[in-house]
């Protein structure tokens, strides 16, 4: 009686799985005393191995063309920053980066960093006024415009198929300029 019940359950499972999936599952012969977990394990195909991106396998032609594309991207971005065009600058940001820049925690941290930097640079640190950043526009005018209008792309490294880290080289050190991602066929700053 137990064998008939087990076979009935397996038959229902196999019929239902055949209807729901694009590829029918072949019935597995069942031994009379086989545990149900072992039978189910044999009948379910193993998932495909995920494809892992290897940056070392990026062809030199792809690296070179991406480098040139990003040089043009950064030159255009520099011109926008020099022109103090906040609206155009925002169009270069990913939605997540824009949201991060507008977050209270991020702006509070940047406000504190600016204040400490201004105190270190001042003749009398007690007279330094704290500039409070309240939104991405304040961030753009107080941080981006003074420091990012003359960036130079010297190197890139692929992080993923559609993600690249852009570097400049100063005094023999690679300094990260931007983390960029190709979103809707357009490069966007994600960090």
Low-confidence stretches: 1-21
State the assembly state of the protein chains: single chain
Alpha carbon gap, first and last residue: 64 Å
Number of strands: 4
Structural class: alpha+beta
Strand order of the largest sheet: 1-2-3-4
Using only CA atoms, what is the Rg?
Answer: 28 Å
Give the DSSP E fraction (strand runs of 2 or more residues). Answer: 15-25%
Taken in chain order, the helices and strands follow as: HHHHHHHEEEE
Shape: globular
Percent helix range: 40-55%
What summary fits the major beta sheet? 4 strands, antiparallel
Please tell me about this protein's structure.
The structure is a single chain. This protein is an alpha+beta fold. It has 2 domains: 2-43; 57-189, no CATH class. Helix content is 48%, strand content 15%. The protein has a 4-stranded antiparallel beta sheet with strand order 1-2-3-4, with helices on one face. Strand 2 (163-170) and strand 3 form a beta hairpin. The longest helix has 23 residues, at 60-82. Residues 1-21 have low confidence and may be disordered.
Question: What key attributes describe this structure?
Answer:
15% strand; 4 strands; alpha+beta; 7 helices; 191 residues; 2 domains
